[in-house]
Write a structure and sequence with these properties.
The chain has two domains: 58 residues, no CATH class; 49 residues, no CATH class. By secondary structure, the protein is mainly α. It is 75% helix and 0% strand. The mean pLDDT is 95. It has seven helices and no strands.
Length: 122
């Protein structure tokens, strides 16, 4: 693979954002793969790739990417919430509940609090 410039990586990242918004998650993943190959520490690119995997119904890769993000940023409420949605979609509700609750504790957005189910007695 030829050497990539920082500008090329940024262009690919922005293009991946647009592809995801345009409902082409597989195209977004393809662009992000090359960005992450050069910058594996880039949490923003990993979070975007996790979202793209989720949108493409590739739940295991999405889960792994969200976990990498959370290893680096354990206080990332969105990553906890998105991981919870991923686990919920995979019918792993007990694991999902933990991450919904962490998301709500870190950031009490109404959507996070509602998903956490604090009022359901579980």
């Amino acid at each position: 693979m030829p050497e990539r410039s920082p500008e090329t990586n940024l262009i690919d990242y922005r293009a991946a954002e647009r592809l995801l918004a345009a409902r082409d998650p597989r195209g977004a993943v393809k662009l992000l793969d090359s960005v992450i190959a050069v910058h594996p520490e880039n949490t923003a690119a990993r979070l975007l790739r996790a979202r793209a995997f989720f949108a493409a119904a590739q739940l295991r890769p999405a889960e792994l990417e969200f976990q990498i993000v959370l290893e680096r940023e354990p206080d990332n409420a969105f990553a906890h919430f998105a991981l919870a949605r991923t686990l919920q979609r995979a019918s792993r509700n007990d694991e999902a509940r933990r991450h919904f609750r962490l998301a709500a504790a870190l950031d009490p957005k109404p959507e996070y609090v509602a998903a956490a189910g604090f009022d359901d007695g579980a």
